[in-house]
Automatic annotation (TrEMBL):
Regions crossing the membrane: none
Task of the protein: Plant non-specific lipid-transfer proteins transfer phospholipids as well as galactolipids across membranes. May play a role in wax or cutin deposition in the cell walls of expanding epidermal cells and certain secretory tissues.
Domain of life: Eukaryota
Keywords noted in UniProt: Lipid-binding, Signal, Transport
Organism: Sesamum indicum
InterPro entries, sorted: Bifun_inhib/LTP/seed_sf, Bifunc_inhib/LTP/seed_store, Plant_nsLTP
Entry-linked PROSITE patterns: PLANT_LTP
The protein's name: Non-specific lipid-transfer protein
Domain Bifunctional inhibitor/plant lipid transfer protein/seed storage helical: from-to ranges: 27-112
Pfam families attached to this UniProt entry: Tryp_alpha_amyl
Length: 116
């Protein structure tokens, strides 16, 4: 029950942070979108939750320009580095598991300046 409440609050927080046209992407927006993915990315689940996949789709929607893609990448990289137990294989497979073609790698070591 507690996890469900946290997921609902996270999703609601995300919707209040959705990018409006002409505004830069912030790490707060990216982090809020991907918070539901933490359990999957740290090996506590066999598959990403629907809330996680909704967040991955939201990040894809945020990352329309090269600048936005690079900003999202930097945010994802910083967030990934905060979790020592993040599973690289889970991170790399996340977009595919969610059925999203994401132009932003989910990795601790990606060079975000090379993203187009």
């Amino acid at each position: 029950m507690k996890g469900g409440v946290v997921a609902v609050i996270t999703i609601l927080a995300f919707f209040t942070l959705v990018v409006k046209p002409g505004q830069a992407v912030t790490c707060g927006q990216v982090d809020a979108a991907l918070v539901p993915c933490i359990s999957y990315l740290t090996g506590q689940g066999d598959s990403p939750s629907p809330a996680c996949c909704a967040g991955v789709k939201a990040v894809k929607g945020m990352a329309q320009t090269t600048a936005d893609k690079r900003a999202c990448c930097s945010c994802v990289k910083a967030a990934a580095n905060m979790y020592a137990n993040l599973k690289d294989a889970a991170a790399q497979s996340l977009p595919t598991k969610c059925g999203v073609q994401l132009d932003i790698p989910i990795s601790r070591s990606v060079d975000c300046d090379k993203i187009n």
